[in-house]
Amino acid sequence: MRLFVLGASGGVGSSLLEQAAARGHRITAQTRTAGRITETAAVRVAIGSPVNRAFLERHIGGQDAVVQCLGIDGIGRTSLFSDATGALLPVMKAAGVNRLVAVTGVGAGETRGHGGWLYNRIIFPLFTRNRYADKDRQEALIEQSDLDWTIIRPAPFATKAVPGSLQVYTEIPPGLQLSSITRAEVASFILDSLEKGSFIRQKPFVGHA
């Protein structure tokens, strides 16, 4: 596949580039900062803002799918996720690119309160709640589109994988807590979803208990 990856220099994005190239895909990798991604035979770097519609128009035509895995470092209010999505959706429609995978996370929509005690009680209220307010807006925009979208909601990120297969839920039962997933596991799940055409117009919540 030909993939346009937004947020390609972040943790999930960089792992996605490596795994996608190993699987034989070709990637256009968006980054806002020159030098953060090395071009290879499989990876072409596109330097620009994910909210700049003209930049998106230059790169989305001819792609098979778009992967949106943007991130931020700050804890204050943001509109990056909804602004980038608002710019992206009409460009994809105009270019005839119908497949979108967007990574949001635990804290979006009905996943709130399902990330384990540490995340639910400390990390979310103190550090990530503002970004998830905007990710809720992002998800709403995607759901209103007529694209073949998948919204992936990973559990809290961990540096080391735990034993066992990922748990995947498109409906969240009461009491469920998924407390860890690695960025590499998220990248693999993204590629599996694209290659298999799975989870179309669904919001899988993925991670380990």
What does this structure look like?
This is NADH-flavin reductase. It comes from Paracoccus versutus. Residues 7-195 form the NAD(P)-binding domain. This protein has 209 residues and is of the alpha/beta class. The chain has one domain (2-207): Rossmann fold. Helix content is 37%, strand content 18%. The chain contains 5 helices and 8 strands; from the N terminus they run βαββαβαβαββαβ. Strands 3-2-1-4-5-6-8-7 form an 8-stranded mixed β-sheet, sandwiched between helices. β5, α4 (117-144) and β6 (148-154) form a beta-alpha-beta unit. α1 (11-22) crosses α5. The protein is globular and about 45 Å long.
The coarse overall form would be globular
- Counted up, domains total 1
Count the beta strands. 8
β content, as a range?
Answer: 15-25%
Per CATH, which architecture?
Answer: 3-Layer(aba) Sandwich
Which fold name fills CATH's third level, the topology? Rossmann fold
**Helicity range:** 25-40%
Radius of gyration: 16 Å
Question: What kind of sheet is the major sheet?
Answer: 8 strands, mixed
Stretches where pLDDT is under 50 for at least 5 consecutive residues are none
The level 1 CATH classification is Alpha Beta
What order do the helices and strands follow? EHEEHEHEHEEHE
Q: CATH-wise, what's the superfamily?
A: NAD(P)-binding Rossmann-like Domain
Q: Can you count the helices?
A: 5
Spatial strand arrangement across the major sheet: 3-2-1-4-5-6-8-7
**Helix-and-strand structural type:** alpha/beta
Kindly, what is the distance between the CA atoms of the first and last residues, rounded to a whole number of angstroms? 32 Å
Mean pLDDT: 96
